[in-house]
Amino acid sequence: MTDISYLLLVMLVMTVATYATRLTPFVLFSRGQERALINFIAKNTPPMIMTILVIYMLKGVNYLSFEGVYTFIALLVTVVFHLYKRNALLSIIAGTTVYMVAVQM
Fold first, then answer.
1. Are 66 and 41 in contact (CB under 8 A)?
2. 48 vs 31, which has greater pLDDT?
3. What range does the domain containing 20 cover?
């Protein structure tokens, strides 16, 4: 098989796989019924992901350096913004900005 035909075959397989993965939810859930599992996942996924990100962030921190102080300040800003505005994106951006500014000083 030549290089160009191999690349075209790979592109065809990727196209079919992408189309199939995007079409599958519409086919499976097209009846319009609300399902308890889907509602549970939609409600609980964002807090679970935020918890995983916080644990991942805190696992590699050197708590005896300024990095640890900056990390906890950024974490505190993130929590306060989230409790105040209830907007995950704003909270993440605020905490990241505070951390990056503190690290650059």
1. no
2. 48
3. 1-33
102 and 73 in a common domain: yes
Please tell me whether residues 27 and 48 are part of one structural domain.
Answer: no
What tokens does 46 get? 């964002």
For residue 91, how many other CB atoms are within 10 A of its CB? Answer: 20
Q: In Å, what is the CA distance from 55 to each residue of 58, 61, 101?
A: 5, 11, 22
Phi, psi of 77 (to 5 degrees): -60, -40
CA pair distance 90, 19, nearest whole angstrom:
32
pLDDT in tens, 46-85: 888 888 988 988 888 888 888 888 999 999 999 999 899 9
Are 97 and 51 members of one domain?
yes
pLDDT at res. 26: 81
Rounded to 5 degrees, φ, ψ at 20 are -65, -40
Cα separation of 94 and 50, whole Å?
Answer: 15
User: CA dist 95 to 23, 71, 100, Å?
Assistant: 36, 9, 9
